[in-house]
Structure formats: C-alpha cells, structure tokens
TrEMBL record:
GO terms for molecular function: ATP binding; phosphorelay sensor kinase activity. It comes from Cohnella zeiphila. This is histidine kinase. Residues 501-609 form the Histidine kinase domain. Its EC number is 2.7.13.3. It catalyses: ATP + protein L-histidine = ADP + protein N-phospho-L-histidine.
Length: 618
C-alpha cells in the first residue's frame, strides 16, 4: 500500500494549481526551471553572496582599522596640547603670582620675567602653536604684550572681540575648551581657565593652533580619496575636517548615540541648540555612505564617511562575471529544451486551431494524425468528437426554435379566450335585447379582433385574415374617436391569399393612435397599403400624425430603441424578431418619418402560398 506524505501531497496540489492555466510549453519550462534553473540560480546567488560578503568584510575591516588608527593619532595629539594648557593653568607659582596684589614695580617686573622665562620656552615644545597667551584680571599686574595680557574691548583675538571672548570662556561650564577661530577655519583655539585654590577665576590660558600643523597630515586625502574625516567635539561641533568648508558646523550622523550626545548640556554662548540655521548643520542622517564613529578619551569623536562607490564597483564586477557565466549556460540549456518540445507544441497548436474553427460553428473539420503516440490518439478522438458535435448542435437548434414558439404561445395565452368569448356573447345578447345596433357593431368588432389575437394554435395566417383583424381594430377606434380619423385602404386583391405572420399590422396602426397623436390632428389620415410586387409582399401604414424625430429614427436604425410603444403586447421589436424567425434576411422592416408631419412603416417579405415555417438561426 502506498504511503501518503502530507507535505508531498500539499506540494503536488500547489504545483498543479500553479500550472493549471499554463500551456504545455510553459509547463515544460516551469518544470525545467524547478529542476535546473532555480537550483542553479540559488547556487549562483549563494556564490555571489559569499564572495561579495567576504570582499565587503575585508574592505570594512581595513577601513575600520584606518579610522581607529586616525582616532588614536588625534587622541594623542589632543592630549598633548591639553597637557600643555593644563600644566600652564595649574602652575602653582603662576597661580600665586596672578592672585597677589602688586605695590612695587620691581615685583611686577619679576613676575613678567618669570612668566616669560618659564612659559615662553614651554610654548615652543609642540608644533603648530601660532600664539600663546596668559590672560589675567589683576589690575595691579601689567600686560607685557608678549605672554601676559588683560582682556580689553575693541581688540581682537583670533578674529573675536577680546572682552566678549573672555566673558564667554569664563561663563562656560567647561574648564578646558577647544573652538575654531571665526575668521580662519584653519586655526583652532584652546582655552583653559586659571583657578585659584579658593575657586576664584584668575585668568585664561589662550593657545592659537595652526590647523595644518596639528591635524592637516592626519586629515589630508583620507582613504585615498574615497571618503572624508571629521573631528567632532563633545558639543558635536566640527573642529577639523578633510573638507575645510564644514569646519565649525554641527554634525548629525545616523547613530546619534555614537556621539554620546548630552541633551542636557547647554550650547555654547551665542548659539542655539541646533545651530544658527540649516547652513550651520552638516546632516549625514540621510547619507547612504558608510559611516564609522570612533570615540576619543576626551569625549571627542572621529567620524569617517567612506564612499561606497569603490565597493559597489567591485561588487558589480563580481556580480556581472558570475551572472554572465551562469546566464550563458542557462540560455544554452533553454535553447536545447525549446528544440525538444517544438514539435509537440506545434501539433497541439494545430489541434487548438481546429478547435477554434469548431467554436466558430465549423464542425466539418478534421486533423490528420501525425503519429500513434498520445497526441495521435487525441487527434482521432477530436475527429470523432466534431462529427458528433455537429449533429448535437443541430438538435439543440431545433429544440431552441420549438422553445421560442412555445414562448410566443405562452404570451398569447395570458388571457383566457373562452372567458372573453362568453363575455362578448353575453354583451351582444343584451344589446340585441335593447336593440342597440351601435353596441352590437362594437361587440362584433371586438369578437373579430380577439378571435385572431387569442388564437394560440396559429402563428401565420392569410393576408386577408390579417386585414380583417386590422379592420376590426380600426372599427373599435372609430367608435372611440368618431369622425376624427379618415382611413384609406389600398389593397391588391392578388395579395390576399398569401401568408403573413399574425398581428403584424395591428401594432403599427395602434402606434398611430398612441404615439402619433393622430386623433388630435385636423384632417388626420391613416393609409394602409398591401401590394404584391413580383415575388414579394409589400405592406405599409402611413399616418399624418406628429412624426418621429431624427434622433429617435437613428436609434431605431441602430437597434438601441425598442419601438413606438408595445401595442397589445406586440411591439416593433417583436415584429422584427418574428419576421426574422419566419423569413430570415429576406424580410425587411423600415420606418420613414418627418417630425411634425408624417410617418410611414413599410414591411416586405417573400410571397408564399405555403405556410412559412420557423427557420434555423445562425
């Protein structure tokens, strides 16, 4: 007994459902894809992924190591300059001399000599120091213009108002502060507070650094031109960068936590928390390049932005190489597969063409068998099927015609003829008793009219009987509208014994009253003509009523308008259908009219002494 596997069964149903609406060629190609193409693509994709991943990891590791080395160099350089500023600001002798009051000029000179002797050489220890100053607020101590200075208004230091700079630095929470020179981005300013033992501010150490000497070598042409480097302070302000135009701006990177932003720390004096505007912010959050952030021991960060174009170019080259090789062999195998199935698909296509012929109504078609394989058997079955199908369609057509005939009969049987005849007989007996000749004539006309209308056993009658039916209807109308409508008859006696379909003229005459408004027109006229012309019968009904508009006539010709009314249940569209049912394309129905003037309805059909039968529809 075969063992059932639910997973395999589900997979089988899924594949069958997926390929159900595909042609044979597509199914074979899908099978080929599942067996060969997809595994090949999967293996190729895996190989591409592994190669690209390995190359990417190697590239990122190399760049990360380079950023780490740069961060270490920046950190060492910063600590060196920080140490110089701290040693100067914490020198005990300097603090003592700045905190005392001077009464003797010799003591002032001694202090100046001490500062020059001690710190003038110290300021030369490190490269890149463009200016070195010690600012104080001791009114008893002079400023020598070399190392000792007092802040004054109207004097600039590094492009800044000296007194404003001094006040901003003393108000800052930070003891040691790095900043950029406003008038020259190629210079950095180090400010260190000088604080007495009791905590009072004695002055500031001012160091002006040459940017190129301090950071230039580390930031010059980073990553061989494939990226940019930024040195960012603890306020996210760019102090140095490989792109000098970004110096002084605030920087935003993808990982905000990487900069360890302290939102509670106040901004620098004279600045808003987000900078002075969009031009004061370098936003890298939307940058799709690689960003590496390395923290320094002082709270600074080195931010590296590496262009991925080089990596993408190498990855693209690897991808194209592997895809090209894989694609070549796949195309070769697909070509071989298409060659194998070509003959089978061609035979199936020919069989499908013959089926299309059958669908269009051509049943006398056959397919020559190309072999004794499964397709050959299918071709033989198709030939047998078309032969039987033609006979079946013929039987169905006959059944459809009988069904339509029964529908017409059912429509006519809505009124019980016997009830009407008995009622009319009772009314005529009462009229005879009352000796009312006019009422007797009305009842006789009604009897003649309903005798044909309610006869469900016939669908075609002689023309003379159809005219008698119309005359009965007109006589009723004349009693209803006495002396309002003049009726003229033009009847060819040679046409009276030919057959026509029942109730073909009466609905048209009824439309003259209902829609032609014939009774409201002065000198109203209805002319009924019946002639035999060669081997055709021509009937027409003319009235000088209100006519039909051009738009309505156009819609009637296009078949979008049913007809002028329904006239006793048999409208214009019903007349057309019944003419086509019995006479086919040999019958015609035409309406001519002039709006406000007249209307003429003309019917033509073959003259026949034999009762016409319903035709097979095509």
């Amino acid at each position: 007994m075969r063992k059932e596997y639910p997973i395999l069964r589900l997979l089988e149903k899924t594949i069958i459902g997926f390929t159900r609406k595909m042609n044979l060629r597509s199914k074979i190609l899908v099978l080929y894809g599942l067996i060969l193409l997809l595994p090949t693509l999967a293996l190729g994709s895996g190989a591409v992924y592994l190669v690209i991943r390995s190359f990417t990891q190697s590239f990122l590791a190399t760049e990360d190591q380079a950023v780490t080395q740069t961060a270490q160099n920046v950190d060492f350089s910063k600590q060196s300059y920080d140490l110089l500023a701290i040693r100067t600001a914490t020198d005990g002798e300097l603090i003592a001399r700045l905190g005392r009051e001077y009464d003797d000029e010799s003591e002032v000179v001694d202090t100046v000599n001490y500062v020059d002797r001690t710190f003038l050489i110290t300021s030369k220890y490190l490269p890149g120091i463009a200016d070195f100053r010690i600012y104080h607020t001791n009114d008893t101590l002079v400023q020598d213009g070399q190392l000792l200075w007092r802040p004054e208004a109207h004097r600039l230091v590094a492009g800044m108002d000296e007194s404003a700079w001094f006040k901003a630095a003393t108000d800052s929470d930070q003891t040691l502060l790095w900043s950029n020179a406003p008038d020259n981005p190629k210079q950095n300013v180090i400010t260190r507070k000088i604080i007495s033992p009791n905590g009072s501010l004695l002055g500031l150490v001012y160091i002006l650094l040459n940017y190129d000497a301090v950071f230039g070598e580390m930031l010059d042409h980073p990553f061989n031109g494939r990226g940019s480097l930024y040195i960012v302070d603890d306020e996210q302000r760019i102090l140095a960068a490989s792109n000098p135009s970004s110096i002084g701006k605030r920087i935003l990177v993808k990982d905000e936590l990487a900069l360890e932003q302290n939102e509670s720390s106040p901004p620098a004096s004279g600045e808003s928390a987000t900078g002075s505007g969009d031009d004061d912010v370098l936003d890298l959050t939307q940058n799709k390049e690689l960003q590496i952030v390395k923290p320094l021991s002082s709270g600074w960060h080195v931010v590296a932005v590496i262009h991925m174009k080089y990596l993408d170019r190498q990855n693209r080259l690897i991808l194209l190489l592997i895809v090209g090789i894989t694609g070549f062999f796949l195309l070769l195998s697909v070509s071989l597969m298409l060659t194998i199935v070509k003959n089978i698909v061609w035979r199936i296509h020919k069989l499908g063409t013959r089926m299309s012929d059958v669908a269009s109504g051509e049943f006398e078609v056959a397919v020559r068998s190309q072999g004794k394989d499964e397709l050959g058997e299918l071709e033989n079955v198709f030939n047998s099927m078309t032969e039987r199908l033609g006979k079946l369609v013929e039987d169905i057509t006959k059944a459809g015609m009988l069904e339509k005939e029964q529908a017409f009969k059912a429509l006519q049987a809505q009124i019980n003829p016997h009830f009407i005849y008995n009622s009319l007989g009772l009314l005529r007996w009462r009229a005879l008793d009352a000796q009312d000749d006019e009422q007797i004539r009305i009842i006789d006309a009604l009897t003649t009219f309903y005798r044909l209308t309610l006869n469900n056993q016939i669908n075609v009658i002689r023309i003379r009987d159809e005219l008698e039916h119309v005359k009965a209807y007109l006589e009723i109308c004349q009693f209803r509208y006495p002396d309002r409508v003049r009726v003229e008859w033009e009847v060819d006696d040679a046409a009276l014994d030919f057959y026509t379909i029942k109730t073909v003229l009466q609905p048209i005459v009824e439309n003259c009253y209902q829609h032609g408004a014939i009774t409201r027109r002065k000198g109203s006229l209805i002319r009924i003509s019946v002639f035999k012309e060669e081997e055709r019968i021509r009937m027409s009904v003319y009235d000088n009523g209100q006519g039909i508009s051009r738009e309505l006539l156009r819609s009637m010709e296009q078949g979008t308008y049913v007809g002028k009314g329904t006239g006793n249940g048999f409208g214009v569209s019903n007349i057309k259908d019944r003419l086509a049912l019995y006479f086919g394309d040999e019958a015609s129905f035409a309406v001519d009219s002039e709006a406000g003037e007249w209307t003429r309805v003309t019917i033509e059909f073959p003259a026949s002494f034999a009762e016409p039968a319903m035709r097979r529809e095509r």
